[in-house]
Amino acid sequence: MKYKYQLVTLGSNAEAAKEILNLFDERFKELNLPIDAYKCIDRNNFQDEYMGNQPCFVFYFGNIDGNHEDLELTDLLIKDGSMILPIYFNDESFSREIPGILANQNGIQYNEIEREKIVSTALESFGLLRSERKVFISYRRSESTSVAIQLFESLEAHNFDVFLDTHSVPKGAPFQDELWHRMTDCDVIVLLNTPDFSTSYWCKEEFAEAGAKQIGIVQLVWPHHDLKDDSTTHISYPKQLTESDFEDDIYNDKDKSKLKQSVINELIKDVESIRARNLAARQDSLITDFRNIASSLGKTIVVQPERFLTEELPLGKRRIFIPTIGIPQSTSCQTAEIKNEMSSGKVSIRLIYDDLRIREKWIEHLDWLNKNLNIDVKTLKKQEFKSWLQNN
After folding, report:
1. What is the strand order of the sheet 161-163 is part of?
2. Do 230 and 363 lie in a common domain?
3. Of 47, 158, 281, 377, which has the fewest CB atoms closer than 10 Å, so is most exposed?
4. In a domain, 292, yes or no
């Protein structure tokens, strides 16, 4: 397979570049994409390997002494319209470490916490990972309100779209419907597993809902809370907390307990790393369900390397089915391969999605778009897979 994605590293700090490329490789594999679908390019193989007509993302690593390298290649990539992420290393040193031609680019400081985000930014640029980074906090108010608010603020500060029941439900909206809707559309759930969490009806419902939707869970298990017999651990990533993980060892006061910053930093890394593999697993589940139904009806559906589905039709026409997690968005059609398919004029596209717990007003809106807009991109909800395939 000829590679489609070009990952370019320029500038200084070969060790940081190596760490980022190794992490990108791990996350790319977790998305179940063929490893030969992307190519690593640097100054040594740029002239032979770089193709201006293929998707490209550039990591430019700054120099702490202000000795900027690869300026000609950087200028070429800017003119080609490539997305370039400047990476600097010291606080408030962007203007020194990054060359002037990248001064208008939004950069990121390299550290252990931000490594996952750096890699996610590249995957998002390629259209392989959605750019919205959605987290849902599940907790029991009578036990962990202060920690829930602390995590809400910390995750938001790291550019996550965070749902917290006390902060995120619009005034006048049906509370429980909005809660399920936002859970359906999230990437990861952060669950505060306090001693009496599982005794709450709504907390148990949230956990059951997460299982039904196959949403990955990062569990923070409170000190002295035994998780050994908890059957939920097989769908989650539990972290056992100790008293020393809390400021002043206060862990059992719903209004005063606070996690130490080091624990929050680890949580942010965990959420970012789990995000890609969880979205891939949910996408695979949707693909399997759709293909199984299609196969039972005698239809041949092929999974393409980029994880969308195709069905060949008479007269050289083709249908594309894009598995979409959460609420379908038009950006699902923005990968290079799909845009090339659409340009042929012989392709129709369906965004397939699981409509369980999505608010009715959204379902009605998507159905209205299908009926009233004369476009080749439409949506298809899971409960209608069989009937639609039978009739089309």
Report:
1. 161-163, 134-138, 188-193, 216-221, 236-240
2. no
3. 47
4. no
- Residue 3 has what pLDDT? 60
| Residue 66: per-residue pLDDT | 93
| Residue 98 near residue 62 (C-beta atoms within 8 A) | yes
Q: What is the pTM of this model?
A: 0.79
Q: What pLDDT is stored for residue 245 in this prediction?
A: 96
Task: Write down the pLDDT at residue 279.
Answer: 84
pLDDT number for residue 88 = 96
Contact between 44 and 11 under an 8 Å Cβ cutoff? The reply is no
Residue type, 311: E
What is the model's pLDDT at position 207? Answer: 82
Residue that finishes a domain, picked among 278, 305, 332: 278
Kindly report the CATH number assigned to the domain that includes residue 178.
3.40.50.10140
Long-range Cβ contacts of 22-25 (<8 Å, 24+ apart): 23/115, 23/116, 23/119, 24/119, 24/122, 24/123
Q: Which one, of 383, 309, 295, 306, lies nearest residue 349 by Cα?
A: 309
C-alpha angle 165/272/153, rounded to 5°?
40
* Rounded mean pLDDT for each run of 10 residues along the chain, 392 residues in total: 80 93 91 84 94 90 95 93 93 93 92 91 86 89 94 93 84 77 90 89 82 86 74 69 95 94 93 85 89 94 84 89 83 59 74 88 85 79 94 90
Q: Are strands 161-163 and 108-109 parallel, antiparallel or unpaired?
A: unpaired
The CATH number assigned to the domain holding 108 equals 3.40.50.2300
Number of separate domains in the chain = 3
Per the CB < 8 A criterion, the answer to whether 193 and 221 are in contact is: yes
Output the pLDDT for position 175.
79
Strand locations in 161-221 (E): 161-163, 188-193, 216-221
Do residues 63 and 120 share a domain?
yes
Give the separation between CA 392 and CA 374, rounded to whole angstroms: 17
Q: How many CB atoms lie under 10 A from the CB of residue 120?
A: 21
Could you give the CA distance from residue 382 to residue 326 in angstroms, rounded to a whole number? 12
- The β-bridge partners of 60 are 10, 86
Which residue in 178, 198, 175 sits closest to 186, CA to CA?
178
